[in-house]
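Quick one: structure for this chain?
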Amino acid sequence: MATPATSVPPSVVVHPVHSLQGDIEVPPDKSISHRAILIGSLAEGRVVVSNFLRADDCLATLNAMRSLGVPIEDTESGQIVIEGVGLYGLEPPMSTIDCGNSGTTMRLLMGLLAAQKFSSRLTGDQYLRKRPMERVIKPLRQMGAQLRGQDGDRLAPIEIEGAPLKSIVYDSPIASAQVKSAILLAGLYCDGKTTVKEPYKSRDHTERMLHKFGVTVEVTELSASVTGPAQLKPAEITVPGDISSAAFLMAAAAIIPGSELLVRNVGLNRTRSGFIDVLKRMGAELSGADVADDGLNEPSGDVFIRGKERLKAVHIGASDIPRLIDEVPIIAVTALRAEGTTVIEGAGELRVKETDRLSALARNLSALDARIEEKPDGLIIPGPQRLRGGAVDSFGDHRTAMAMAVAGLFADAPVTVTDTDCVATSFPDFFKLLREVSVER
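Got it. Here's what it folds into:
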């Protein structure tokens, strides 16, 4: 069984630094790695995935597909080789499928397993079992799926009775790539066109990858459709670096004067690059992020960041959030180094992530003497502010842990971040890489 290359300690002390200097690569993209395994398993033939993310969340997806009878080899060369079984080649799992901490694994599997001819059951860790699942159950039931959750169908574990599905047009009340992807994967098994409409455009990795595997995909600014029943052809996938992981180091370099950091081969998909746009609006010195995006392939490039003494505050609204949902924690920390008041609105979705990220940020930054106002759907952060040292908690959330580590880089004294082993879900080498690029005061 594949395992992450690095274990993460349960707590980490981060010391203030003089600057960040280096030429780095960040872990492979988590969202794309998930989809490469899931969609590759449905192809009819051999699929080779290069630069797969060996972190806990993606390994949960890999092991889930193995439990469904898909031969998947983690080769010595570092490639993942999948012998795709086609749409109808999955086998009944011998036991409950454990999705660990991965909401992507659980929600996308719900769409995939709803159309099978067998029953299955999905569960996860204590954090995943608190995350909302009704948002996926509701549209899948409209397609004819038979799913049952706990607590009024809100929570996992999820019981799935495979059933024939029908295509639908679904107007999603939220912009969620996981909801959209679950419906599109279920739509692969339906006769005709299945369409998902969203209030704002969410990340589009599923649509791009399905197209690469030969599925008929139609995309507009606010909708995505697949036509089934589909036949997926073999393909080769190379996963770029994860912009959401890179964001923590990029932000650190941008806000610490004298820093010079080159991040190589990072994904620059326009539905994921909202964080870079925010850095530019804040006046960060950044180059290399303007690459061509044809909407079909996953664009990537090298991004260079030079630190500045001060940035400027920005307003982030609901229409911005889908393109930077995972980066809000580090944007909040960055705002502490900006002139003016940064306002983040329309981010209520952060309350149902691995933890309530808005509450976690407000509590942690307040513990370091920051002034921060928590709103039902966002945060108000005046700046610039100085932080004292102290102890903060990740609350079991990898992005909260990494954001607070960045805060420790410019605090007046060391910051201890506890419950940091959760970082293994996405960026097992984060603290190691952070030490390598840090220049001590």
